[in-house]
Design brief:
Strand 4, helix 2 and strand 5 form a beta-alpha-beta unit. The longest helix is centred in the last third of the chain and has 21 residues. The protein is globular, with a radius of gyration of 18 Å. 30% of the residues lie in helices and 17% in strands.
Length: 258
Amino acid sequence: MERRAVTFFSDIHCGAASGLLHPDGVRDDRGILHKPDETIQPWLWSRLELFLDDVNEVTKGYSNHVMVNGDVIEGIHHGTEEIISNDVGVHCEAAANVLDYVLSRLNHRTVHFVAGTPAHVGQGYRYEKVVTHKLRERGHRERIQLHQASNTYVWPYVYARMKGHPELFDIRHHGRTGKREHTRGPQARWYAQDIWQTHVNEGRTPPDIAIRSHLHKFIDSGADHRGLTREDLEVLLVNERSASGGNHQPGPLRKGFA
């Protein structure tokens, strides 16, 4: 069996004052260059470089598949002033610049985009669709995977096994967590049970591995992280045993990915 890894990457919020921005900056339609500030941006980029180095080290010998799990741009919402531009096109270009760099640095075979928050990425995740098309034009055409049901390159969610592997994934952007340090662990365990029970009640096979993003905190329902974490970015090696230890049979409405 081919050894495979899945790299999860989310919530980069390009276009926000504290979102990721390529060191070269980004130009708007008028040719104005929006540059990174000299405080938070260099630190953020240094953390990204460490993450990419770690991913490439951990996934040596694996076929690596990247999941970009939502909110790649900040967008224009709720009257926020903590953005680099009021032009959402600048946010999309900034995200394309960052992700082009990330994908050029990572050893990977496929890329899957999962939809983020409408307030950030637009209704119907239209701005994330813009970003995927920009990336396809920059040489990533063969690796960004089509969601055939919607004929777009952004998946509303993933409920699938990797081809040739038994682990069943449930990957969505939005999740829940406790608001305080002492409530996060219990909330994560409760939420894991809730995900499992919801699938059972609705007649589906519960997942071995459920991934949620959005909250900008790394929280796990158990001690088995099965990879590495750096901030809220995670690498998951999927050729190990399933998270539940179960041996589930396939459920409905699911196709293999990667």
